[in-house]
Design a protein that fits this description.
Elements lengths: L1 H11 L3 H40 L3 E5 L2 H4 L9 H10 L3 E15 L4 E9 L1 H4 L19 E5 H7 L6 E7 L5 E12 L4 H6 E5 H7 L8 E6 L6 H9 L7 E5 H4 L1 H39 L1 H9 L4 H37 L1 E2 L11 E3 L2 E3 L2 E2 L9 H23 L3 H6 L1
Parallel strand pairs: 3-7, 4-6
Antiparallel strand pairs: 1-8, 1-9, 2-3, 2-5, 2-8, 4-7, 5-6, 10-13, 11-12
Helix pairs in contact: 1-13, 2-11, 2-13, 11-13, 11-14, 13-14
Length: 411
């Protein structure tokens, strides 16, 4: 066996240019696959982190019908009692009560449609909350509000402006008050950036006549996002929450769940590139190599080498070529993805001209995207190349093994 491996290795050096071309084609295809897979991995992590963090959480609790109608009277009552039950449920790390109230906001004369968002400021300032990273002096309090960055840009609202807010209370009365703009807020939640007026939960409860009430409870689990359905089921089974609707993130944002499922298809499509490149490179190399060496192979058959050993030698030659190509491609691809992950890819450069962010699935992404690879991302390339290399070399190998030694030596 050792001698066959040495011969197969030696044969690859007979035509260095052709070997390097085939090896390069396989390596470039593997690099392309790893670059795309690394980018998809980074995008999925950033998207799911934003979605299951400040936007949707791992699960949400609403009054039945609120998600469809967004009516102010469809609110969660007995809020503190229910919050205590939620926070004591195994697997719950955080529970954020929130109020979403449509309103008309006016700075001077013209009014603008907005959503007043009431938040538990202290809890929302921790990691995973909508106000994560905001300094104490920049948080909403009393009647001091934060305005979504896109809404402020569109309407010309500035820090220090006084805003008149008019909406409908949960009891059907007219809700109105004056708010002072304390800052401009940019969050991963597109709705808040585009139309949000963020105030303290207590202030929202007073303005919209919602004592001990909230529009939703957003739940962050202590486990992974894959545990969300089980967590949602545990919450829904609680008697204190039985009259409410409890759903996991995958049902609240089915389009993102679908994207997560089908994103693996991109890897499969890209993996086919490696298969095609390997098949073309290996098949061409082995066909040419066996044709050029017909006299030598015939001589080997005449001196007693068995057809099986000859087939094995040619197949091993193809395997070494394919594995070398994918190994070089894996090393180069891993290095490039590691560098991209270290420096990041500017998301603003991926958006429209003059844009500083990109939006998808109701989320706004700013900053950098950090591609990365998992160990399993390298496996398909190696497995695929092994399969394709054997398949591409088996026909010329068998055809050569069937040669009559004298006929091959005369050709």
């Amino acid at each position: 066996m050792g001698s066959i491996v040495r011969i197969a290795w030696r044969n690859l050096g007979r035509n260095v240019r052709r070997t390097l071309l085939a090896l390069g084609a396989i390596a470039i295809a593997q690099i392309a696959v790893l670059l795309v897979v690394g980018l998809i991995n980074g995008w999925k992590v950033q998207m799911l982190t934003a979605l299951t963090g400040p936007f949707v959480g791992h699960a949400q609790i609403h009054a039945v019908g609120f998600r469809e109608e967004q009516a102010p009277d469809l609110a969660i009552d007995r809020l503190q009692e229910r919050l205590a039950v939620v926070r004591e449920t195994p697997g719950v790390a955080q529970a954020f009560p929130r109020i979403y109230a449509p309103a008309l906001v006016a700075r001077e004369v013209d009014g603008h449609a907005a959503i007043v968002v009431g938040l538990d400021v202290e809890r929302e300032s921790v990691p995973g909350g909508m106000l994560e990273g905001l300094p104490l002096e920049g948080r909403p309090h009393d009647r001091v509000a934060l305005v979504g960055s896109a809404l402020a840009l569109e309407t010309g609202i500035q820090v220090g402006d006084e805003l008149a807010v008019v909406g409908q209370g949960a009891d059907g009365s007219m809700a109105n008050d004056l708010l002072t703009v304390g800052g401009i807020l940019t969050t991963p939640v597109e709705l808040v950036n585009r139309a949000g007026i963020v105030i303290a939960l207590e202030s929202a409860q007073e303005i919209f006549v919602m004592p001990d009430m909230a529009s939703e409870i957003t739940v962050i689990g202590s486990g992974s996002i894959d545990d969300a359905p089980a967590l949602s089921a545990r919450l829904a089974a609680s008697p204190a929450l039985s009259d409410l609707e409890t759903l996991p993130w995958s049902e609240l944002a089915p389009e993102v769940a679908s994207f997560r499922q089908i994103s693996g298809m991109y890897g499969i499509v890209m993996m086919c590139i490696v298969f095609v490149a390997a098949a073309a490179g290996v098949a061409n190399t082995m066909l040419m190599a066996t044709f050029e060496r017909r006299r030598e192979l015939g001589m080997m058959l005449s001196v007693g080498i068995t057809p099986l050993r000859l087939v094995l030698m040619i197949v091993l030659e193809a395997l070494i070529l394919g594995l070398l190509g994918v190994l070089v491609g894996s090393a180069a691809g891993a290095a490039i993805v590691a560098y991209q992950g270290f420096v990041g890819i500017d998301l603003a450069s991926m958006g429209a001209e003059h844009s500083t962010s990109i939006s998808a699935f109701g989320l706004t992404f700013t900053g950098s995207l950090h591609p990365h690879l998992f160990a399993g991302d390298f496996v398909p390339g190696f497995v695929g190349v092994v399969v394709v290399s054997v398949a591409a070399s088996i026909w010329p190998a068998i055809s050569t093994a069937r040669l009559e030694p004298m006929e091959a030596m005369r050709s």
